Records
---
Amino acid sequence: MDLPPEQLQFLTTQDLLKESISIPKHSPKTFYLITLTLIFPLSFAILAHSLFTHPLLTQITNPNSNLPHTSQWTKLLLFQFTYLLFLFSFSLLSTAAIVFTVASLYTSKPVTFSSTISAIPTVFKRLFITFLWVSITMAVYNIIFVGFALLLLLAIDTNNVGLFVFSLIVIFVMFLVVHVYISALWHLASVISVLEPVYGLNAMKKSFELLKGRVKMGGVLVFGYFMICGLINGLFGSVVVHGGNYGVFVRIVVGGFLVGVLVIVNLVGLLVQSVFYYVCKSYHHEGIDKSALYDHLGGYLGEYVPLKSSIQMEDLDA
């Protein structure tokens, strides 16, 4: 990020994307290795997941199958558990690596792949605690969402037009507004957990404050990411998973291409997530002390005990 901190608040969504895409050129080897070891396995797992679950679901739903359903359900549940564990682990690891690397470049701290990997264990713990609080929030959201989905089914079953319209509107708003907002809150809280001496619930609270005034930009970025990922998953499912008529070669080529596209999308998404934090800080005129951040990052490498954030330091001086 070559722009002065006070100028970041004026970035448009398009400018933010351009700024994010330009970051890897400052340390191409580091980003290449992060992409290869963390983001590629994550992206591959996201798409390949349906390749393994589809045959199991087919066997379970096939009434003529000779295999016991209990055995197939056990395999499916075990696979789903392993997949989710892998997914969330590599998602947090990728976030930790990208946020740490971008911050190091921002503070002109020497950065290598080995230094980034060395910092991950400490960063991961903070991110995981924040993730647990986000999970609690998402669990409450999902309970409410399922409740209105059941209400929608009841409205269809009883031919209640008023209840049907009401439930449909609530479900639409909950996904388009609430789900996107919680996701934006989570992504920003993840960056805060790495770069500031707060994490968990406190990071969520700080994320809520920073997001004020930039909710629209954050929503557009998150919704755009969801749409692109949805499109990629849809194409992968229709051509690779269910596209038996396309031939093996075509399915392999298309599958490889879509995995590559998703790798790029996830890398850019993580870079945008990092830059968006600095944009929000600039918008609220919360100056970032680069020397304090430099030392804070060094604390993850055993170089220095993490200092308080610039905001907290200002409060102490007041």
---
Amino acid sequence: MQDPKKEISGVIRTLCTTRDANQLQATVEKYFAPDAKLLHPLCKANSRNEILGAFQWYRLASPETQIKVLSVMYDNDLNVLVVEVQEKLNVWFVPLPNEGGRMVVRLQLKKINGLHYITLEEDLTHPMDQIGFLASPFLPLTAMCLRLGCLLSNLGACVFRTVGLNSGLRGGTVGYDGLMEAAGFARTAGDKSNGSASKE
């Protein structure tokens, strides 16, 4: 790429939506370095040939992929692109409906003979988005699991604070309010004022 920020949207759209096998191969070979790597929640590729195979399977599994580039950020000093995309898959062998999701793609570039080549692609997704890509009926269960994680975090903070194991975090009332809110017992302003009045 001569102008990474300007060109990357077209590159991503081609990789994710083309039905032409020759165009897909040409795009991977044109924009990825031979020793490029791909890190994705479901796979890890260690060469350009492996990346091509991953994209070929992706196009075969979801021939009707829809993708929209939401934003592109380019750090010239680090030679890194960060691209936010909205994507909706249509995996033919997964019978469950899907709502699609958001993905942040981080691309490490390397300048060779005046052109920028991708040396590392990292596809970063939130668990809610990952489930949304493949099985949106499970989104409520995923949300509940994440809320449970928050509850356990606040419970841990409250317990450690109570028993005095808080050497790394001093001062304040760490844990209790967050624990109550995570458990669904949010305290109102009136409750707090009553509590403070009783202490006086």
---
Amino acid sequence: MSTKTLPAEFRSLYRLFLRANSAAVLHHSSSKVQVNRLWRPVFDEAALGIHKLQHCAHPAERQHVLQWLSTWHKRVDHTLSILANAAVSRGLAHKITRNLRWLRRSHVLWVEKSYYSHKPFWKPQLPPKSTQYQPYSLPAPNSKHDYALRKNRKIRLFDEQCSNALGEVIGMAEGRHGIILGRLRLKRWQQEWSS
């Protein structure tokens, strides 16, 4: 999020949101990091909208961006009220925040296991021409290795379809109640050390 031309009100709203997140997870550091990473893409998207608004000359596009930002501000206000409620009580709002933190962390672990666990890591004791660094050949059709790869692909496809369905449920909840429950952003992988 580039802060060069963002209004002070927007930056203040983001800081308020971070403080509300921290209070909602009882200032637990790893939970705070997970929840902040969940809502960062939402604010990045709004920052892009503000940049579009500042550099937009066409009135119809400007009106569309203004309407989107107005809806976004209402949703952020509703989300802030949920986070404030989660900070002072251990009711439904606190359970939602706790489960969103759990959902984001389990998504990170799932992506690491499903997409990055088979990636070889550099081992300095091996020579550069080691067979471990060579690309794998395709298995023979109907072999045990081929069967295992197909089974893993089916499991991965099932996992992806389940997470897509969960995303649809979250989207419907956001639309019905006018709130924002965060976004999962897939970016270039690097090891996350928070738990």
